C-alpha cells in the first residue's frame, strides 16, 4: 500500500513526506512569523523542511535566509543555502555563524541517528543529537526565537524537556499525524527563548545522573 503522505509529497513537489510534519507543526504553533528570517535547518537532507520554510516565509511576505546543515551532501532548494558539516564540530558552528552574521530566529532539527533496532540505544543516540541541537540554540538563537526538534522517545524524555524548559518559555511535545504510527519519533516545539545568552551550566548542571 502506498503511503498517502509519500504520494502527496510527489504530487505537491516536496522532496519527502517529512514536509507534512512541519506543516502540521506550523499550523498548530505558527512558528514562521513576519520576523522569522534567519533559519537553520539541521539534518537538512533531502530538503523538504527547507522547502516548507521557504513557502511559509514567502506567504508571510518574508525573504528568508535559510541554511541547511547535514553530514550528507545535498543540493539546497532555490532560495536557500547548504553546508556539509557536523553540528558537534566547532568548524561547523563557525560556518553557521559566518553565514548569518547575526542572530537566528528559528532552529529546525529533523535529525535522527541511524536506528539499530535496539530501542534504548536508539533513544540515547537521539538524546545526544538533541543535546547538540540545544547547545547550538543556546549560542545562536536570539531572545524569543523558537526551536523545533525531533527526538526518539525513551527514558530521558523528561530530562530533555526540563533542559528545554530552562531555556524557553513554552515547551510542547507532539507527534504529528504524518509520523508513522509505529514510529517512536516525536517533536519538541519550543517557543520564546528566555534570553539571548543562556549559560550552558545553567541548562546542564544540577541534573541527576543519566539512567
UniProtKB/TrEMBL annotation:
Keyword annotations of the record: Methyltransferase, rRNA processing, S-adenosyl-L-methionine, Transferase
Its GO CC terms are:
mitochondrion
Q: Which Pfam families match?
A: FtsJ (PF01728)
Active site residues according to the UniProt entry: 150
Gene Ontology MF terms in the entry: rRNA (uridine-2'-O-)-methyltransferase activity
Q: Which residues form the Ribosomal RNA methyltransferase FtsJ domain?
A: 14-193
Q: Which domain of life is it from?
A: Eukaryota
PANTHER family listed in its UniProt record: RIBOSOMAL RNA METHYLTRANSFERASE (PTHR10920), RRNA METHYLTRANSFERASE 2, MITOCHONDRIAL (PTHR10920:SF18)
Family the UniProt entry places it in: Belongs to the class I-like SAM-binding methyltransferase superfamily. RNA methyltransferase RlmE family.
Q: What is the recorded name of this protein?
A: rRNA methyltransferase 2, mitochondrial
Name the source organism: Candidozyma auris (Yeast)
Amino acid at each position: 500500500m502506498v503511503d498517502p503522505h509519500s504520494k502527496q509529497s510527489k504530487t505537491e513537489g516536496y522532496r519527502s513526506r517529512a514536509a507534512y510534519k512541519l506543516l502540521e507543526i506550523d499550523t498548530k504553533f505558527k512558528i514562521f512569523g513576519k520576523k522569522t528570517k534567519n533559519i537553520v535547518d539541521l539534518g537538512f537532507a533531502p530538503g523538504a523542511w527547507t522547502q516548507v520554510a521557504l513557502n511559509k516565509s514567502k506567504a508571510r511576505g518574508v525573504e528568508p535566509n535559510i541554511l541547511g546543515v547535514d553530514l550528507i551532501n545535498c543540493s539546497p532548494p532555490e532560495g536557500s543555502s547548504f553546508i556539509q558539516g557536523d553540528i558537534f564540530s566547532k568548524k561547523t558552528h563557525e560556518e553557521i555563524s559566518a553565514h548569518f552574521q547575526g542572530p537566528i530566529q528559528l532552529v529546525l532539527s529533523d535529525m535522527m541517528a541511524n536506528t539499530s533496532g535496539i530501542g534504548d540505544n536508539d533513544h540515547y543516540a537521539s538524546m545526544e543529537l538533541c543535546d547538540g541541537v540545544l547547545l547550538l540554540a543556546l549560542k545562536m538563537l536570539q531572545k524569543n526565537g523558537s526551536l523545533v526538534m525531533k527526538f526518539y522517545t525513551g527514558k530521558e524524555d523528561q530530562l530533555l524537556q526540563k533542559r528545554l524548559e530552562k531555556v524557553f518559555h513554552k515547551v510542547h511535545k507532539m507527534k504529528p499525524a504524518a509520523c508513522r504510527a509505529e514510529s517512536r519519533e516525536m517533536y519538541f516545539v519550543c517557543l520564546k527563548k528566555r534570553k539571548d545568552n543562556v549559560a550552558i551550566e545553567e541548562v546542564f548542571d544540577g541534573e541527576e545522573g543519566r539512567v
